[in-house]
Amino acid sequence: MTDFAAVDLPALLAIVLALVACATLGNWLVLRRESLAADATAHAVLPGLVGGFLVTGTRSPWAMLAGAAIAGLAAILLARFVARATRTGSAVALGVVFTAFFALGVALLETQGARQVDLDPDCVLFGSLETLFVAPPERSLEAWMQSWIAALPRPIWTLAGAAGIAVTTSWLLAKELAMRAFDPSFALASGAAPRWTDDVRIVATTLAIVASFEAVGSVLVIALVACPALAAAPFARSVRGQIALSLAMATPIACGAYLAAAHAPAWLGTTHALNASGTVACALAAGVPLAHLLYRVFRRGARPSPALNRRPA
Which residues of 261-270 are buried (b: 16+ CB within 10 A; e: fewer)? Predict the structure, then answer.
């Protein structure tokens, strides 16, 4: 039990908090057919991370997170400008912009000495879940448990703040965001859902992705944004219901996948380790077609889900 609380529980807590932060706001991206924006942001933050290191000369978490947030927002705004200036679709503009940003970040990693401080493509892709642990007790178990919360790694506290922002944003602006997702023309014409609500959602989504990036990596961030919402969409009958259901469905899958990655090699007696972030991402992705298959099997007499039958904006 002590080993679980010291090694596995902090990583599980990080996964759950990242899930709450990313999946809560990811539901709005899925409803608006903008899931690629999460992919773009997760890749675009890389030059910001390296830029934070180059400016400060150290791997200061706050400087690198600030750089990542600036880069993520810049990518979204630049993609909007490209889409309007070239009259191409938003998906095309996002694809061009995030590819350019990610390529720039990789080039900076390879040429500016960032590898010397353990900032490399593997860290960017898969995060640092395996390094999130609390020091084992050097005194009585009771005294150690009392200080366990204070000893949690910093990324977990960052994720807790991002999760709080995500839930608060979705709760306070649920009506406005739903109007902009399902009928943006009416939302603008009536003034009931002004354009700034989209800006708040974009900022909150960027913060969630940036906060999760350090702990779980870009691969799992993208899966956390899109997969829970896509799996819950067939069964949901309201937006708030879809958000709650996506979290309820994805949490046991993510936690089970992490435990399998952490302990399956020992249980099976193999020498091959499993990457935690990659395993969780694969499990969440596998859950999407499985959920849709179950919906097709049991949908007789069911009312169509608004998330699956709305017309694109």
Answer: bbeeeeeeee
Task: Locate the domains of the chain by residue range.
Answer: 2-130+152-309
- Quote the pLDDT of residue 117: 47
CB atoms within 10 A of CB 290: 11
Which strand (E) or helix (H) includes residue 192? Answer: none
CATH number, span 2-130+152-309: 1.10.3470.10
Please determine, for residue 31, whether its predicted confidence score (pLDDT) is greater than 50: yes
Quote the CA–CA distance of 213 and 207 in Å, as a whole number.
10
Distance CA 31, CA 35 (A): 9
Grade residue 140 by pLDDT with cuts at 50, 70 and 90.
low
Residue type (1 letter), 240: R
Q: How large is the average pLDDT for residues 103-125?
A: 64
For residue 35, which of 48, 44, 47, 25 has the smallest C-alpha distance? 25
Q: Kindly give, in sequence order, each residue whose CB lies less than 8 Å from that of residue 52, ignoring residues fewer than 6 positions away.
A: 60, 63, 64, 65, 66, 67, 68
**What's the whole-model pTM score?**
0.81
Cα distance between residue 173 and residue 211, in whole Å:
21
Instruction: Say if residues 213 and 68 touch (Cβ distance below 8 Å).
Output: yes
Cα dihedral value 73, 76, 79, 81, nearest 10: -70
Residues in the chain: 313
Which residues neighbour 118 within 8 Å (Cβ) at sequence distance 6 or greater? 59
Q: Confirm if 47 and 184 have CB atoms less than 8 A apart.
A: no
Of 192, 198, 196, 163, nearest in space to 177 by CA: 198
The whole-angstrom separation of Cα 64 and Cα 57 is 11
Residues 202-207: contacts with CB under 8 Å, at least 24 apart: 202/73, 202/76, 203/73, 204/25, 204/165, 204/166, 204/169, 205/25, 205/26, 205/28, 205/29, 205/37, 205/38, 205/41, 206/41, 206/69, 206/72, 206/73, 206/76, 207/69, 207/162, 207/165
Q: Report how far apart the first and last C-alpha atoms of the chain are (Å, whole number).
A: 50
